[in-house]
Specification:
The structure holds two protein chains of two kinds. Chain A is mainly α. Chain A contains twelve helices and no strands. Chain A has two domains: 116 residues; 159 residues, no CATH class. By secondary structure, chain B is an all-alpha fold. Classes of the chains: A mainly alpha, B mainly alpha.
């Protein structure tokens, strides 16, 4: 694929390496240019952030292990006091440090993790026999306020992980036993939760919230949505001929929702946002569903046929090749459109 | 953390760059930019899509061969494997069309699998060295001939995997350090050399995947629930990868003349301590992290972010102490890192650069 490194566009390290690798930039000029783009202060702040993130993670892991050990010598009030004191310290320190600083945000994140530890210790001391999904529910509820005020993508992500885990545990502990709730409802719930989060993320981006500019959260949310909605679709395709395990009506509805959600997502990212990663994920998802459908039709009652295997191999090549051509075309069209708007 | 916002034109006109570059070189870059000749590779998502698709189509191609009784003996398998390879190389050279490219990749993967795995039946005295030799030959022959990034990434990984299996099954356990040494050397050559041709980029990613993966395997072999026959001291590899990490830091700092810089002394000291007291995977993951940041390369950074937590978890998991003591060690190491950060901010912070 050809891409024009516009003379008046922003320079970046990748482009410098490319120019150097192609012999267009000599060694000395490359080193000098790189020092301008990536000065020692940039290296320093990068290392600083890493040390903070790894350091805090290790400390929190140590705290979790400490309480998981379930010290017999330690009284219950001591345990509670220790955790609660840590939570209060984190919040107070974050207040003085400033919630807009990374260290302040990390302190709020630490307090949120410690809330989970507090609930776990509570469950350890007062063994009520409650299901573990209740811990996650309580945890998500307790830290929600901090999640809102922190303006920290990592804390939002942690909160989403807690909520998703809570929902999955609820289904495993309440829904699944006795087949009270079909698994499709779980998929739908996961899909709705993460779609709402994605919608909020997009709204935040539109409002130019700087803390939402990191790109890693969007693909994770989108993959979760696509996987959760695709499972019933694949089930519908695979079991549609099966007279013993016929898909229920909810499977049809969720498949319809998958069609609507992916189409809407594609149109939104294609025409409104012009972002390639979500379009690529949706296209890959379509390819998987399409190949499952074709595979089911071809191999149904036709397992040992060499010709079918060969034909299916070529169909995979065509579908994947088609998806690749499509993505390349969309990329070119969107880049052209963006340039037009920039002008 | 982000690149400074400056255009290519402004960057080349900067006095610090201008003193190393002449007018004709700037014009050449400008000309090339206008001509759109600088080509970038396919985006990562296309490579993933293409690789996964080719794997599945290769599976069905082999299934076709099995069902059509084409693989009833190893000679047939070898011949078909070679034909697949030749077809892949021919198609890739003859056309750049996406569909044919995808077909070539599927044929290359299927051919590789047939050659390596179906070939084994020829030998009555079965040895794991045979697939290693075959894959080495395949890599040496096919890598220069077949210019597909996905295949060039996967083939060396399969070779490393086969070598690891051979060592585990037939060689003394300490042979694994030779494999780690080779992978470290390959990674150093490909990252430290300033002008490696672009065709070696997939090999760089292979090395960056193979090295931590082999170290991970070595780590697993030390844990009691892994097969106990495979035991070798981990320190040999620790020395190797720590030396690589230190050399990398010195190289990126601009050479040995910067050895007195306090931050470089800190980085070298930290790497040496990590190498001496933790698992070799941790300095390796840190080296990948640094490389990823240096090259602004998402794949290298992604590999580092994937392997670093795994090595950290494994290290603390394999510590032969009770949970209570482990919690102190974990929290203590975290506090050490936070203290280092605090001290660095106080004493080592460089002045803010201005363009």
């Amino acid at each position: 694929m050809k891409q024009q490194p516009d003379w008046n566009k922003y320079a970046n390290v990748n482009l410098l390496h490319k120019l150097h690798q192609d012999g267009l930039l000599n060694d000395d000029a490359f080193v000098a240019a790189k020092k301008i783009l990536r000065p020692s202060s940039a290296w320093f702040s990068w290392a600083n952030q890493l040390l903070l993130i790894i350091g805090v993670t290790l400390v929190l892991a140590g705290v979790i292990f400490f309480f998981a050990y379930n010290w017999a010598q330690m009284g219950k009030f001591q345990k509670f006091a220790l955790i609660e004191l840590s939570i209060v310290s984190c919040i107070v320190a974050s207040f003085f440090r400033g919630a807009e600083q990374l260290s302040g945000k990390t302190l709020i994140l630490s307090a949120s993790v410690l809330c989970g530890v507090l609930l776990a210790v509570y469950g350890q001391i007062y063994q009520t026999g409650a299901d573990s999904f209740e811990l996650f529910r309580g945890w998500a509820f307790l830290i929600f306020g901090w999640v809102i005020v922190s303006e920290f993508a990592a804390l939002w992500f942690l909160w989403l992980v807690i909520v998703n885990t809570g929902v999955i545990l609820f289904w495993l502990q309440v829904g699944e036993p006795g087949h009270a709730i079909d698994y499709e409802w779980l998929c739908l719930a996961i899909g709705i939760i993460n779609s709402s989060a994605l919608a909020l993320w997009e709204t935040g981006l539109k409002k130019e919230f700087r803390w939402l500019t990191s790109k890693w959260l969007q693909p994770i949310l989108l993959i979760t949505i696509l996987v959760s909605l695709s499972i019933p679709c694949i089930d519908l395709i695979i079991n549609s001929y099966d007279s013993y395990d016929k898909p229920s009506s909810i499977t049809f509805y969720i498949s319809a929702i998958w069609v609507l959600a992916t189409s809407a997502g594609y149109l939104y990212y294609r025409n409104n946002k012009r972002r390639m990663t979500p379009i690529a994920l949706i296209t890959m998802n379509y390819s998987v569903i399409l190949l499952t459908l074709i595979g089911k039709i071809m191999f149904y009652n036709n397992h040992g046929n060499a010709g079918t295997a060969l034909l299916f191999a070529f169909i995979i090549i065509c579908v994947v090749g088609g998806a690749t051509v499509f993505l390349k075309k969309v990329n070119i069209a969107m880049t052209a459109k963006s340039r037009e708007i920039d002008k | 953390m982000n690149n400074k916002t400056i255009t290519i034109k402004e960057l080349l006109a900067h006095p610090q760059v201008l003193e190393h570059i002449n007018k004709s070189e700037i014009e050449q870059i400008h000309y090339e930019c206008q001509r759109e000749t600088i080509q970038t590779n396919d985006p990562l998502y296309i490579k993933i899509l293409s690789g996964v698709g080719a794997w599945f189509s290769a599976f069905f191609l082999i299934m076709f061969c099995v069902l059509a009784d084409l693989l009833d003996n190893s000679t047939n398998a070898t011949v078909i494997g070679i034909i697949f390879f030749i077809a892949a190389i021919f198609i890739a050279k003859a056309s750049k069309a996406t569909f044919l490219d995808q077909l070539a990749l599927a044929l290359a993967i299927a051919g590789n699998i047939l050659l390596v795995f179906y070939h084994l039946g020829i030998f009555y005295n079965f040895s794991f060295l045979t697939p290693v030799l075959i894959q080495t030959t395949v890599c040496l022959v096919v890598y220069p001939l077949y210019a597909n990034a996905v295949y060039r990434y996967l083939a060396p990984i399969l070779l490393a995997l086969l070598i690891a299996v051979w060592i585990v099954e037939e060689q003394p356990a300490h042979f694994i350090h030779f494999l780690i040494a080779a992978e470290t050397l390959l990674l150093s050559l490909l990252t430290i050399n300033k002008k490696i041709p672009a065709k070696f980029n997939p090999l760089l990613y292979s090395a960056a995947t193979m090295l931590p993966a082999t170290l991970l395997f070595l780590n697993f072999s030390q844990i009691s629930w892994w097969r106990i026959e495979f035991q070798t001291p981990i320190q040999v590899s620790s020395v190797l990868v720590t030396a690589f990490t230190i050399y990398l830091f010195i190289h990126l700092a601009g050479g040995a003349k910067h050895l007195r810089e306090p931050w470089l002394i800190t980085a070298i000291g930290t790497s040496a301590l990590l190498g001496a007291f933790t698992t070799p995977g941790i300095p390796t993951a840190i080296a990948l992290l640094v490389l990823g940041y240096n090259y602004n390369d998402r794949i290298l950074s992604g590999l580092a972010y994937l392997f670093l937590p795994i090595f950290l978890i494994l290290y603390y998991y394999s510590l032969n102490v009770d949970l209570a003591y482990k919690s102190w060690i974990l929290a203590g190491s975290g506090l050490i890192l936070l203290t280092v950060r605090l001290l660095a901010k106080r004493f080592l912070q460089p002045k803010k650069d201005t363009i």
